[in-house]
Every structure is written in C-alpha cells, then in structure tokens.
Amino acid sequence: MNNTVFMFPGQGSQFVGMGQDFHDEFVFVRELFDMVEELCKRHIRRLCFNGPMEDLTETVNLQPAITAVNLACMEAIIREGVKPSLTAGHSLGEYSALQCSGAISAEDCFKLVFKRGELMHREACANKGTMAAVMGLEIKAVSAIVEQAQSAGVVSVANHNTQNQIVITGSPEGVKQACALAKEQKARAIPLKVSGAWHSALMQGAKEEFAAYLDEFTFSEPECPVVMNVTGEPCSGAAELKEIMAIQLTSPVKWCDSLLGMQESGTEVFVEIGPKNVLTGMVKKVLDDKEKPCVVHNVQDLKSLEAFLKAVV
C-alpha cells in the first residue's frame, strides 16, 4: 500500500491473553511461537495467554513475547497481500519493524530481542533506575530540566512520544529532581512502573555487549525504509540500519519527530500492529492536523484484522 506505515509497539503494551486468537486460528502463528520458545527456552505462549502479568512483564520474557505477537499480527496481514511503504517501531518494536521490512529474519529478530532483554535486565539489576512521564511541557523545556537535574544523578530524555508527553529516565535521584523541576513549571510528572532506566546511560554496559552481539548478524537491504528511533528519519541501507541499532539502547526514542516526518513526506495511513493501541493514541495526538488528515488502524486480534482488511482490501 502506498503512503502506509506499519508501526509496532514495544514494552508497556502487553496484556494477558495477547495473541491467543491468532495462535488458535493460524498454523503459521503456532509455528512462530514454536520458534520463539525453541530459541529462548521459555514458555512464551503460556505467559502471553495465561500470565501471570508479573512474569509476563519481566523484561527477559516480555521482549520476545511482544515481538512474537507483533510478528503474528503482521504475518496475518501480509498473507492477505497488504504490504507497507514504510515501517517503524517504538523502542523494542523497532525489531519487529526491521523484520517486517525484510532487513532481518524472524529467527534473527527473536535472537536479538531475547539477548537485548537479558542484557537490559542485567544492567537494571546492577544499576537501580526508574522512569517518569512528563506531561504538559515541550521537548525544549524538558531537555533543559534534565540538564539542570543531572547534578542530582543520571537523568535524560528516553521517549519524545508526543509534543507534550515526554518520558525521562535515569537514577532515582536524577529522575526525582527532574520531576520536581517539571512540577515547578506546572507540568505533571508521573512515575512509571518499570524495572530499569531504559534508554539511559545506565544501559551503557548492555549497549557495548549488545553491539558486539549484533556484529554476528547479517542485515539485508530492506524492501521498504525503516523510520529509526535514534534519528527520527527513514533509513534504507543494511549497514546503516545495523549501525543505528547498535546505539539504540542508550539513545532517546524520537517518536514525535518520526510521526511528523512521515506525515510531511506523504504518509497518510498509520497501522499499529500488535497488542493494545498505545501508538494509535500517540498518532492522533501528534498528527491532529485538519489540513493533512490521516487514517489510523489498529490490528491486534482477529476482529480488528477483519475490520482493517475490510477497509483496505
């Protein structure tokens, strides 16, 4: 489909029961789950379908679990002959986007996200960290706040999600100080339930080891460009994709810039593929432009798949 982006969610979109109806309906989805369980040696389908939520949410389980559901939903769409002109993913979701573009195989995708989850969990245990969502300030103001708060501890921007929703990350002391400064400017600062300071300097140990692991993999030239978190811009070269993914762990996710850039370049249809509808909400907030209307779809179960195909095929 021309002017269409397939978008994939990351951590935070999980729910118990995700992907089960696709798994029950399609042999190829059961084969995907067989693959991820064999590669990760974990009961991914049991966690996805039955929980408990506490175990599903552990980073080492969650990264392959969400990826499996993302790829199951995506494969169901592609088998109906619908393909994107662009792909993008939010943080962890970027690996699903790479797979969708043809840059990496499903097997390599699962290997990479499982290793990523293991390393992030290790660093989170070694370096206590936290995250918070700052609501009501633009990126320039939040960037100034985190710079000022660095005297208290490690803190930086993790996700620039919408014009007025920015997630900060770092040590408990650094994030606490940044939240206090944000509140002084009449913003809301909401602590997030996370087990680590994702996309911060506290992940540096994971970044170096993951970059070395990434070197063992071969990326292919993608069939369509991937809009990258690190740059907020489309990339269509295998070597460049790999290079950018090596620094993704400690770089902010420029999601707002990505969406605005896609709209500016003519993208009109935004399809969120995977559990929940977090990215759908962000698209509607960022691209609330009556002069350039966009169409937003969400595919996370059989019912939404049917509705999407009815709308586009």
Our count of helices gives 14
**Overall geometric form:** globular
SSE sequence, one letter per element: EHHHHHEHHEHEEHEHEEHHEHEH
**Structural class by secondary-structure content:** alpha/beta
The total of beta strands comes to 10
Low-confidence stretches: none
Annotated CATH architecture of the largest domain? 3-Layer(aba) Sandwich
Strand numbers in spatial order across the main sheet: 8-7-2-1-9-10
Question: What is Rg?
Answer: 19 Å
Helix content: 40-55%
Can you give the mean pLDDT? 96
What is the fold-level CATH name, i.e. the topology of the largest domain?
Malonyl-Coenzyme A Acyl Carrier Protein, domain 2
CATH superfamily of the largest domain: Malonyl-Coenzyme A Acyl Carrier Protein, domain 2
Number of domains: 2
Proportion of residues in extended strands: 15-25%
- CA(first)-CA(last) distance: 10 Å
For the biggest sheet, the summary is: 6 strands, mixed
By CATH reckoning, the class of the largest domain would read Alpha Beta
Topology:
Blueprint: E1 4-8, H1 20-25, H2 27-40, H3 44-50, H4 53-56, H5 59-78, E2 86-89, H6 93-101, H7 106-126, E3 130-135, H8 139-149, E4 155-162, E5 165-170, H9 172-184, E6 188-191, H10 204-214, E7 226-227, E8 234-235, H11 238-245, H12 255-264, E9 269-273, H13 278-286, E10 295-299, H14 302-312
Helix pairs in contact: 2-5, 2-7, 3-5, 5-6, 5-7, 6-7, 7-10, 8-9
Keywords: Acyltransferase, Transferase
Protein name: Malonyl CoA-acyl carrier protein transacylase
Family: Belongs to the fabD family.
